[in-house]
Amino acid sequence: MTAPGRRSSTFTRLLRHGFTDPSAAERLLQSPELTAVRDDPVLLEALGATADPDLALHGLVRLLEAQPTDTARRELLDTVIAAKPLRDRLLGVLGASAALADHLARHSADWQALVTYEPRDLHPGVEEFERGLAAATDPVSLRIAYRRCLLSIAARDVCGTTDVAESAAELADLATATLRAALALARAAAPEDAALCRLAVIAMGKCGGHELNYVSDVDVIFVGEATDGADETKAIRAATRLASHMMRICSETTVEGSIWPVDANLRPEGRNGPLVRTLSSHLAYYQRWAKTWEFQALLKARPVAGDIGLGEEYVAALEPLVWKAAERENFVADVQKMRRRVVENIPVAELDRQLKLGPGGLRDVEFAVQLLQLVHGRADASLRSGTTLHALQALAAGGYVGRADAAQLDAAYRFLRSMEHRIQLYRLRRTHLVPEDEADLRRIGRSLGLRSDPVAELNREWKRHAGVVRRLHEKLFYRPLLDAVAQLAPGEARLSTEAARERLVALGYADPAAALRHLEALASGVTRKAAIQRTLLPVLLGWFADSADPDAGLLNFRKVSDALGKTPWYLRLLRDEGAAAENLARVLSAGRLAPDLLMRAPEAVALLGEGDGGGLAPRSHAHLEQEILAAVGRADGAVQAVTAARGVRRRELFRTAAADIVGSYGTETRPAEADQGALVDRVGGAVSDLTAATLAGTLRAVVREGWGEELPTRFAIIGMGRFGGHELGYGSDADVLFVHEPREGVDDHEAAQAANRVVAEMRRLLQLPSADPPLLIDADLRPEGKSGPLVRTLNSYEAYYRRWSLVWEAQALLRAEPVAGDEDLGRRFVELIDPLRYPAAGLGEDAAREIRRLKARMETERLPRGADPKLHTKLGPGGLSDVEWTVQLLQMRHGATEPGLRTTRTREALAAARAAGLVTAEDAAILDEAWVLATRVRNAVMLVRGRAGDTFPSDARELAAVGRYLGYGPGHVGDMLDDYRRTARRARNVVDELFYSA
């Protein structure tokens, strides 16, 4: 008896052999069934070698208890102790699969299936499995026989007799034999139907590819024909009944469970199409209606049951269409859609545990291989394998994939598939999720040979292999392109020029010949620069291909690299800063504006890599003004000073545009900004602050050159329109008013002359031809418009507004805000205009009617001829003008009594109107959404085209680029336009109620 407080030697030995619950294991070893062997070291060693010793011991005891006689029990025990092959197989299965342990407990003689150890048992094929299922006469006995065969596959798998690819092939062969047995049962149940038709079962998916999981839907397509003399319609009905019955035999749950679901949804028209079609009907569908993904699915088509001759006719008829898929009109757009990982439907909590669909998962490998097969398989028949690993080997052998990349991807795929197999084997349930429970992870890790610290090692290896897949997924497409143009390793298989061209076309490059020239210029040679470019380009090319204009992205990258290639920090930045390279790729391929700004001063590329995107954060107004004023102070003369100010403006416009693009597209580590309003506010605020700081610096330069430190008159610049509202876009002019006030003792005429000279010189200097974009100053909102004086004194403004001001001028002043110059004068100007824009008595009905009349006239007169009003972001229904005039009407009516409305910013005023109960929350949200969307479209058009526009581009590629900026994937331009129309229509309904009917 063990002394109290001390562990028994058995307890200690069990711990040492990997048992996690030694107390329970000790009790099981004391059970009568194990009396004869409980002290046998061979048994304990064998149990300790399993994935889960506790599970294996429990399963063994259950199996012994299930034996019908003492003789049978003794035979099992004697064989387990004496025969190492059986011991390893049986205990290996019991320690890895609770479901197969349940099967053995129910069918206690099936352990005998593991006794034989002949060479032919090591790698059985379809014929051997057919013999194993031959005795099945109904669905229940078929399930029992299926699990008996599955037991032998699992035993070879967990013992390492077969590798993961061989196990997957055996599972596919067993599925083939099972489909044949099920079809035979269906035919036997309806001989009259069997006599009417020929029915072929085509395996698809993993079964067709000879790489099935333990538990998976078995994808099939059915082809039917009439037998000689039979009516075709009746024959297809008979074939449909047979196919349906076969599916039920496999899929339905019985007392022995189900085998697996048979899924026929890959057939033409999916679940809406007929279950069985004739060969000619299949052919007609694929010739006329099939989508790219359907040809991709056909890569794995393989006849497995029924009329094999008919199945082979089906494959032979469709094979030419599969290898012409890359020539289809929509192939590039389809590929772009497929290449973007479809993770939206995966619950967030599961994304990081997804072996199949998550980033770096099995689907990434399979898709990459299948895409390369579609692109290059037409000219190279060696690539036409339905099995992922075989196809990968063929791609490497032909130079379509780098050998080192293929070897790493092969190892990663095998590891991930092994994990998937072990996860499914435990309960024989269809899942691709890595479990969270530590005991499950420990069992999986040990089953894969990770014994020191199974959980930590498993997680480490899993993440490592997923990282390899994620890293190589894009390089797989692009690295061979570089090998083809660089030609650094003589004797290595590499892409031909034609194959490289085909691949570039398939990935969205419109001018593959130019793209190859750029690649050759970037990657050829033995310099350090060329070596780093060869490392970077495979990833960059993938990001370019993810845009609407890959050609422009690559061309722009070459231009930047030509300008900065000899600068040591440039390539180091892209190589070592994780975000910098991706940010640059997004910026260079998103349109014309940002690359144009960058090309004028390529060193701004450094902004893309400053500390996790920190280099793209907008600078404050104070920071910008301080920098520009300092640059102006150092300059010799006004021209040099304003050139410096414009240089800062160009750099900051690039920073703002780059941040906007990266925020809108997202990156691999950071999703796209979900709050569209925040993106709009950041752009509007940053460009407005930058414009204000540029004007302040230009004013300082002009005054210093003409008058020294002090102008004879106080001078202030008032921002108007979008400038005053902090809502400037990339292409906006600066709407302003100029106000001055003569200093004491200065003649009015002299002061006016000085003020006008300042304005004229500022406008001239800001528009001088240079590498920097001009800043246009628009003063047309001044009193009397273009006919009035450019600059007025404060008293002149006061007199004009008191006597002559029209209602539209008061409305325009709602956006007035001092932006540069004399702060006190600017403050007094605001005090002067406040009673005009926020009248104490509110807005009279006559004034409101005049505003509505002006709005209606503007809609009819100012809309460009030929423009689609419903897609015009400024003047169209539900556009910017609609929302802004509605908000401004509320400001003029209620601004005197509601302080929150006294703001120059549209969204702030709308939020204040909602808070004051002047607009319902629903109406405010509708107006805000429409205003934000219209502003985003205008920003997108400027980014894409490099020039301002108020409507969507007509060019297809430019329109697609606008769509990408707005978050619409390839092929969804129509959805974008529909969404805009719907959003604008809802806003117009609110405007009709609040503006025209109020």
Task: Give a structural overview.
The chain is mainly alpha-helical. It has 45 helices and ten strands. The strands form two sheets. Strands 1, 2, 3, 4 and 5 form a five-stranded mixed β-sheet that branches. Strands 6, 7, 8, 9 and 10 form a five-stranded mixed β-sheet that branches. Helix 14 (232-251) links the parallel strand 2 (218-226) and strand 3 (262-263).
Distance between the termini: 96 Å
Main pleated sheet? 5 strands, mixed
* Large-scale geometry: elongated
Computed over alpha carbons, the radius of gyration is 37 Å
Task: Return the average pLDDT rounded to an integer.
Answer: 91
What's the helical proportion of residues? 55-70%
Model regions low in confidence, pLDDT < 50 over at least 5 residues: 1-6
Strand content: 5-15%
Number of distinct helices: 45
Q: How many strands in all?
A: 10
Task: State the secondary-structure class.
Answer: mainly alpha
